[in-house]
Amino acid sequence: MSCGGPHDTDCGEVLDHLYEFLDNEMAEGDCAKLRQHFDECSPCLEKYGLEQAIKALIKRSCGCDDTPSDLRSKVLARIDGIRAGQRAVEPLLAAEGAGHGDGGLLAAGPVAAAPAD
Question: Phi and psi for 112 in degrees, rounded to 5?
Fold first, then answer.
């Protein structure tokens, strides 16, 4: 998206960081650049207003619901499982890719599982 006008901060960059701005996750200097851009660019200001309204609607509609404890437990267990799997695979990927230049595992083709003893 671009309004076609020249800006210090490109419209694409502003929109790429819009949610960081909405969530107050940006440094003040960066926030000031976005505010200035919104003052100059009505299409980006409109997009900001729309996203802000959607975020407020979601907060009003869903913000007060408590997460069921069983769902929370399942999600946390799944995250732990994924992390454990990644930790187990990362050393293997590093070892396999070390001697293959830029090819690594992906260039080597499929890897057969070792037979169970």
Answer: -80, 145
Neighbours of 21 (CB within 10 A): 20
First-to-final CA distance of the chain = 59
Amino acid at 39: D
Rounded mean pLDDT for each run of 10 residues along the chain, 117 residues in total: 73 91 92 92 93 89 78 90 71 53 42 45
Contacts of 44 (CB under 8 A, 6+ apart): 1, 3, 11, 14, 15, 37, 38
Q: pTM of the predicted model, to two decimals?
A: 0.50
User: How many helices (H) and strands (E) would you count in the chain?
Assistant: 6, 0
Question: Could you give the dihedral angle defined by the CA atoms of residues 62, 63, 67 and 71, in that order, rounded to the nearest 10 degrees?
Answer: 50
Rounded Cα distance, 60 and 56, in Å: 6
Residue 75 CA to residue 32 CA, distance in Å, equals 37
Amino acid at 113: A
